[in-house]
Amino acid sequence: MSKIVMIGIDGLDPILLDKWRDLLPNFSYLMGDTSDCSIMSTFPPDSICAWASIYTGENPAEHGLIESINYLDDKKSKEDIDRSEHFRGKTFWDLAGNEGKSVCVINPFIAYPSWKVNGIMVSGPVFEGGEISTYPEDISEKYKFPPIGGIVDFPEEKDLGEFYERTVKVTEELADVSLQVYKDHRPDLYFLTFLTLDRMKHFFWRFTDKDDVYYPGKNPHEDSIKDFYVILDGIIGKFRDAIDEETVIMVLSDHGHRRRCTKCLNLNEILRQKGYLETAAKGVSGAIKQVVERAKVFTVSSLAKLDLQDWIYRIAKFIPNRKALKKSTYLIDNTGSAVTLSNFCGTNPYGGLDIRAGSDEEYEGLCEQVIGELMDLNGLMGVDAVKWAGKKEDLYSGRNDKRLPDVLFELHEEYGVGMDLFCDLITENFTHKKISGGHKIEAVLLISPENSKINNVKRPESLIGVKDYIMGVLSIS
Fold first, then answer.
1. In this structure, is the dihedral angle defined by the CA atoms of residues 139, 93, 183 and 150, taken in order, positive or negative?
2. The predicted structure's pLDDT at residue 467
3. d(Cα 105, Cα 120) in Å, to the nearest integer?
4. Helix extents (H) in 306-415
5. d(Cα 125, Cα 118) in Å, to the nearest integer?
6. How far apart are CA 248 and CA 188, in angstroms?
7. CA–CA–CA angle 143, 149, 152 (5° rounding)
8. 21-26, long-range: CB within 8 Å, 24+ apart, which pairs?
9. What is the pLDDT at residue 25?
10. Please, what is the end-to-end C-alpha distance for the chain in angstroms?
11. pLDDT in tens, 332-342
């Protein structure tokens, strides 16, 4: 009988693993002879969506969790939403427990609060809406866990050194206590997740990448991401030393993570100019809203050019209804618009459009028309911005498919979705200096090479197949 130790690392990137493999003996061992340890993430490749698919084996149209995380939003005053209702009882650890397998699950992203399992479950709040939750309850008394969950920090540049040290400390503390839990209980299925790499990359990327347009030159943080990979490699080594011959070790991520887009394709403005999107900019109030929009664009761009990106975040926290201002939704007439940007769009290459039409025939025709016009943008604008576009059913189908936009698209990686109105069609990504690392669709799946063909289980092509892969390793049909 095989057992499995599964370590999830949010944002672990296959290209960086190969780039630094000579410094990473434990990752290198798991990679074996291959230089490609990648596996496709979900669309969009965001943590909430991807981890839900890993847990359940369901695609985004089935589980319906397609939210993205806005790292420039202030979440500290918000209460967490119980997203676990979408998958509680259907996760790979629930299914394994139902088959009599003992399980230990520590820090599973969005699986909060913990619930009854055949063993141990320890989870943290998705952001900052609660305390660590455990099953059984006395686990938190037996073991001292550091802050866990998806807590999001917003360090300013002057605070990056302290932020890095604190992030390393929390990571190492979580590794040490979690390893002790493993040694004490030796479950059939052990699953531990580290969320700190992703959080760190968002803020440190431009300080480490000499090809980034905002790389500041030699600086104290230039090796920070590489050094963090080395720390994680050492943690993997400790678990390798702790397992026995019948235990398989697996490492995976929810998505990759490298340079974030440096330009924005302002799709709201493109839709407006093409007549698909109607604005509320009519009469005196409409004229005022136009002035506000133009002032917003000017202020953000000016502060960014003056290297005052931290001030953008400081000011934004005090602006009422700032989300509507950021996405320009205060200026959009949704009822009068035939095509609008989906709520899951962010400043990244992955997005969608909501289509409003009368009959089914009109709907289908409008979808095809918009898809064609999106693909034609490259030729019309003289840039290679749009990678692909298609109807949602061409990618996913399922019981929650209405949560997905009608049309999905992906831009080339140097472009993100811009939402400003009454502006140039292509602008700089003015938040890149603050959030310079971004998600990529290539995730990681590693398994000890001597176990790669265990039980004749075929390696999945995407994260959606990970649940079945784990079941196969555990000989659960």
1. negative
2. 97
3. 6
4. 309-316, 322-326, 360-381
5. 22
6. 10
7. 135
8. 23/226, 23/229, 23/230, 23/233, 24/229, 24/230, 24/233, 25/233, 25/237, 26/233, 26/234, 26/236, 26/237, 26/240
9. 97
10. 14
11. 898 999 999 99
Separation between Cα atoms, residue 55 and residue 424, nearest integer Å? 42
Q: What is the pLDDT of residue 23?
A: 98
Positions of the chain with pLDDT lower than 50, given as ranges: 72, 74-78, 318, 320
3-state secondary structure of 250: strand
Return the structure tokens found at 158: 């002057």
| Beta-sheet pairing, 189-194 with 3-9 | parallel
Query: How far is Cα 242 from Cα 198, in angstroms, rounded to an integer?
Result: 26
Residue 78, pLDDT score = 47
Amino acid at 12: L
Residue 283: per-residue pLDDT: 74
pLDDT at 133: 94
Structure tokens at 270: 């493109």
Which uninterrupted H or E stretch holds 36?
A: none
Contact 225, 201 (CB under 8 A): yes
Residue with tokens 């934004």: 316
HSE-CB for 116 with a 13 A CA cutoff: 1
39: CB partners within 8 A, 6+ apart? 252, 442, 443, 444, 445, 459, 460, 461, 462, 463
Q: Which amino acid is at 92?
A: F
* Matching residue, tokens 């080395």: 230
Amino acid at residue number 235: I
Amino acid (one-letter) located at 286 = G
Burial class (CB in 10 A: 0-12, 13-18, 19+), 271: buried
C-alpha to C-alpha distance for 21 and 31, rounded to whole angstroms:
9
